[in-house]
Amino acid sequence: MTATPTPVPPPPPHGGETYRLAVPNTATAPKIARDFLDTLLHVSRHDALADDARLCVTELVTNAHRHTQTHRIGVTVAVNRKRITVYVSDDAPWALPVPNTTLTAYELGCGQGVFLLDRVAETWGSTIYGGLSPSHKAVWFTLAGNDSPT
At what angle do helices 50-67 and 113-120 cross, to 10 degrees? Predict the structure, then answer.
């Protein structure tokens, strides 16, 4: 299986809302992001997406924490009645998610986050911002469920 991101993020949700959180780049950042997302999913009646969303946001925030020197990790959640899109941003535009397929990495449990995204998310990708002088990136995923409110 080859993990292939979608190159362009989806447009903002039509008829939806957007929420933002900035957390310091610490070991607690994944839990804070997970709790934030969990609360948003509950109040927006997307409880059916909660497990997959928590898994994906934990992977992305953990990657930003482990693989960048960014001071702040951004989490933006766009929610509408049918789907959610979560963007995790940092100020390391060239540190893009790459699957690690070496046996050693697999044994250590590292490098599997991209494969999880590919299996769980409806779409996912990464976007570099700043034009000729890149300043930051966002890795994002979209989830939609059959049980989403209409």
Answer: 150
